[in-house]
Backbone:
């Protein structure tokens, strides 16, 4: 993630004026995380000057109060302008400036490998079958910054159950779209395109693993991985692959793009772990975007209760 220098952005590539104007239409939102927790006195009220959307299509959804955090939400403008999406360049600002070139309709996902129902699924059909949920998750990047985002989507396990993996399926491999005409970062060999990521089957089936199609009540902005991306909140952000077009069920552990690029630095598991340093920096602390002081990084990004059992007995220094 620190491989190439930031690209310079041409004036012609900056965000269109209308979008800035919409951003200035400031909406102050108080997002309640729901009545379920109110009864227990744990109601977390996320009051922040957080949402001034691009006016993208809104998505009907329900709030899933089981999946929330007490932390303040990261402002929408930060969530959508400080991005890692190397298909659109290596600087944090280039995805917001150039991702509008990506055409996300129509969109389909090819499901292949060890499944009973391999097929190409149209995104609209998949979405129509699901009740979209809002879940507030932390996302911790390997680069030591983090955000708190209200995602909209559905559990990855729902899709997996639908396609019926066979007993040979031990892992799930995801690939991003390869379309260099629209994703100019792919014209350079920064990574081995298309971007690939993977999960072990039980990780993929864990209730936290989420396929997001929106954030802050609206469809995903392109720079955040439109129209569909993974969110795996207990792992470093690079596992949360964007703009997915292929899901393959495999017997062998997939080799992710980052592992291929730098195997000593980016392992298959990539669980957020303050006790295992990245070879070039410590992972003990992080900067929450929008905050000044650093905070301690939590084991499994604070999701230990939900996922620690997946790694029981494993040496997490070896399986980093
Ligand atoms: N997915 C693809 N296809 N390409 C990328 O470069 N970057 C990853 C991940 N998913 C990336 C990707 C990294 S390093 C992070 S931290 C998160 O996306 C960032 O997600 P965000 O920009 O929505 O915060």
Residues:
């Amino acid at each position: 993630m620190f491989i190439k220098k930031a690209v310079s952005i041409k004036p012609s590539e900056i965000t269109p004026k209308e979008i800035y104007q919409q951003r200035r239409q400031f909406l102050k939102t108080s997002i309640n995380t729901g009545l379920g927790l109110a009864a227990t006195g744990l109601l977390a009220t996320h009051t922040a000057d957080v949402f001034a959307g691009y006016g993208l299509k809104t998505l009907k959804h329900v709030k899933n109060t089981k999946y929330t955090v007490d932390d303040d939400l990261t402002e929408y403008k930060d969530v959508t302008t400080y991005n890692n999406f190397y298909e659109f360049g290596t600087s944090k600002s280039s995805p917001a400036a150039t991702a509008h070139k990506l055409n996300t309709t129509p969109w389909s996902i090819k499901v292949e490998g060890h499944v009973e129902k391999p097929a190409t699924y149209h995104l609209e059909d998949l979405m129509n079958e699901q009740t979209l949920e809002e879940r507030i998750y932390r996302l911790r990047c390997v680069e030591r910054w983090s955000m708190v985002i209200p995602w909209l989507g559905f559990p990855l396990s729902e899709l997996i159950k639908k396609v019926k993996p066979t007993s040979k399926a031990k892992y799930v491999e995801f690939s991003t779209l390869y379309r260099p005409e629209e994703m100019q970062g792919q014209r350079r060999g920064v990574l081995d395109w298309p971007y690939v990521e993977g999960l072990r089957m039980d990780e993929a089936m864990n209730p936290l693993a989420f396929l997001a199609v929106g954030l802050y009540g609206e469809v995903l902005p392109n720079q955040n991985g439109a129209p569909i991306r993974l969110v795996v909140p207990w792992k470093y952000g690079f596992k949360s692959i964007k703009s997915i077009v292929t899901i393959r069920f495999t017997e062998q552990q997939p080799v992710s793009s980052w592992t291929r690029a730098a195997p000593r630095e980016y392992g298959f598991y990539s669980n957020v772990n303050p006790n295992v340093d990245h070879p070039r920096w410590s992972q003990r602390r992080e900067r929450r975007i929008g905050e000044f002081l650093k905070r301690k990084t939590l084991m499994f990004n604070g999701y230990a209760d939900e996922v620690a059992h997946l790694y029981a007995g494993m040496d997490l220094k070896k399986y980093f």
Observations:
- The first helix runs from residue 17 to 24.
- The longest strand covers residues 145-155.
- Confidence is low (pLDDT under 50) at residues 4-45.
- Residues 6-309 form a domain with the Sulfite Oxidase; Chain A, domain 2 fold (CATH 3.90.420.10).
